[in-house]
Predict the structure of G-protein coupled receptors family 2 profile 2 domain-containing protein.
Amino acid sequence: MRKQRILIGKAREECFDSINSDPPKYTSGLWCNRTWDGIACWTDTHASSTATQICPSYIIGFNKFEYASRRCTETGEWFRSPKTNKSWTDYSRCITPVDTVLAQNHIHNILGLTNFGYVVSLISLLVAIVIMVFCRRFHYKSNVLHINLFLAFSCRSLFSVLRQNLFTYGFAMSIDFQKKGDKVIFKDGPHWECRLLFTLFVYGLCASQVWILVEGFYLQMLIHKTLFTQQRSVKFYIIFGWCFPFTFLIPWIFARIYYDNTLCWSVNTHWSYLWIIRGPITLTIIINFLFFLDNIRVLRERTRARGNSRTFRKLAKFTVMLVPLFGVPNLLFMMLPPELNVAVDVPFLYVSMLYSSFQGLILSLLFCFLHEQVNI
């Protein structure tokens, strides 16, 4: 405790030195004055905005990978707690439960494996695209869709790798932070570079999920041999696969700009806006799972009609191929609870992140490199 008081006292002295010596940050309009809140130092902040900074590293037990926030109201005064009527700083993210601290010991390993998985997936997908474009025996309708599926997962892998390696603390790029002693403060400004990168990352995630839906829908139509499949050209599927994600990506961008314009949009202060993205993705996963069950039912009935072991083995191989195509594991990973129980959820987190990062490799193996072995 004595060491903690010394560290806080040192930070307090540095804060008041900065308050007294630094020139005013703004010269017009309303803003909240710089202040010391008893734990951290806060700079001048525009009215109707939220100041954020990385949780102070000198506070024992604080999570340095999270951030604290302090709201400046529209009147140019710091937000006051209704209970105490005193200015209030939100340190809730900095205070981490013991189980979560233990779980965070695994985060470094998980991020390293995930980064490696996305790099391997990106390389394998690009090689598969080259093979399928230049090899004539791959030039038919379903493989055109496979190529677009590979492109979508290539975008997802590329932007995931860029985000993981360019974002500091997982929140923003290094150019978006300003370091003052032990403090890391998020600079004022549009921060369009990091927000553009994160938006591209979200688009890659959405496009990959929509293209899984496109593949699932196309296979559903093929198995049932509908007139729709025969009449629609591949252009219809391509336009839908690349354009449909914008129907919920654009509303999410507007929601972030006007209602939750925090950091580089990689963290959420209003979780309800996250469902603008999560809702449609969840719906595509559920629809694909229903397609998967129906296709297995139809193929099983046809196998019974033929009644031979060779056909059954082909069905088993085809079922294995359908699992990643329809994103079946994603339905299980959706059940990962927000509150971690180390004994159960950390292994679950390993599996889900590894599957997500290596999914591109799995798809390229099944639909390109092992193509002849899985035909039915």
